[in-house]
């Protein structure tokens, strides 16, 4: 059947010939990985290598195809593996080229372009393969151990009557867990039948302390359990459209009641304050009275001054007369 191979400098495929007839796929991969990482299939996860079989005997015929992740690996393979000895067989390595096997060329055999989703998946696989971080040391703890799951904390139906209880439970749990260390997040799964809450700590040691503190404790006449999250179980409950609508309506009522309470409080505080207008009028009257008193005082001072000047002048004239 016709087969299609990528063409051009960007291709990461190499064609290898002269291999031992009984070579296995794993042995071939070991040889090719001397020059770089071999790509894995997005769907199957298997190495993207192909050992060609004789159509008559179904046995390997000594040639194969290898797909690398990086195009730089192709150049290395051409320089280092071309002429390399594999169990007494000198292999030949070259860039994979388009070849036809059959009577006619069929352009529909050209590989389909990868979907965006497939490209993203391939990119993640490549990033993981090229990650410089070392493997986890033996005994090293996992990130999910920073998370504690508390159960039997509440009855979900209680939140149907009073939505604000969710916030109260969240704050009470946060305050208690802060005794163990830094808390990043507290989640109340208010619709979970087991009454589940999740606490994310900054450090694993704080999570360990929380388990010791809360496991077996009594909270609101309920005996709760606390355990380290297993890293897999999901506690978020799915909702129907009707449930989502009902929940949003409850939150709207809760928020509206909060606004009403705030307005009522502001109104009461305003009633307790003195009448600003009356105070202003009183201050205005006081100013007028002060102005009148000041004016009268000025008049008295002027009259007194004139009397004094007249008296002085009279005495002076009298002296002159003498």
From TrEMBL:
SMART domains: RRM. Residues 12-98 form the RRM domain. CDD domains: RRM1_TatSF1_like, RRM2_TatSF1_like. It comes from Homalodisca liturata. This is 17S U2 SnRNP complex component HTATSF1. GO terms for cellular component: chromosome; U2 snRNP; U2-type spliceosomal complex. Residues 258-309 have a biased composition (Basic and acidic residues). Keywords: Acetylation, Activator, Chromosome, DNA damage, DNA repair, Isopeptide bond, mRNA processing, mRNA splicing, Nucleus, Phosphoprotein, Repeat, RNA-binding, Spliceosome, Transcription, Transcription regulation, Ubl conjugation. Component of the 17S U2 SnRNP complex, a ribonucleoprotein complex that contains small nuclear RNA (snRNA) U2 and a number of specific proteins. Within the 17S U2 SnRNP complex, interacts (via UHM region) directly with SF3B1. Component of a complex which is at least composed of HTATSF1/Tat-SF1, the P-TEFb complex components CDK9 and CCNT1, RNA polymerase II, SUPT5H, and NCL/nucleolin. Interacts with GTF2F2/RAP30 and POLR2A. Interacts with TCERG1/CA150. Interacts with (poly-ADP-ribosylated) RPA1; promoting HTATSF1 recruitment to DNA damage sites. It is found in: Chromosome; Nucleus.
